Amino acid sequence: xxxxxxxxxxxxxxxxxxxxxxxxxxxxxxxxxxxxxxxxxxxxxxxxxxxxxxxxxxxxxxxxxxxxxxxxxxxxxxxxxxxxxxxxxxxxxxxxxxxxxxxxxxxxxxxxxxxxxxxxxxxxx
Length: 125
Prior knowledge:
Strand content: under 5%
Largest sheet: 2 strands, antiparallel
Number of domains: 1
Distance between the termini: 23 Å
Strand order of the largest sheet: 1-2
Number of helices: 4
Structural class: mainly alpha
Helix content: over 70%
C-alpha cells in the first residue's frame, strides 16, 4: 500500500512538473543534445544532455548523486552552457516560490539546477 501511494505521488508530481516548466526545459536539453551529437567532438556531451533531458522530463522519484570525477569537463560545461541552463533552473525555482501550489516544485528546480551546472559529475538514480 505504501509503495502504491509513493508511485501515485511520483506520477502526480511529474505531471504537475511538466505543466509548470519541466516539459519546456527538457525540450531545451534534448535540442542541445541533438546539436552536440551532430558534431563529432561534442558527441559525449550530447549523449549526456539527452540523459539529463530524460531526468529533467521526470525528476520526481529520482536522485542526482554528485561525484566530481570529471572536473575539466564540468568546468568547461559550467563556463559555456551550464551557466545559462543553471540560471534558467534557479529562476524557475524562484518563480515557483511565488505561488502556493507551485512551491513544492522549488526543490525539483534546485535539483535540476545542480545537474545543469555539473552534468558530468552527476549520476542519476
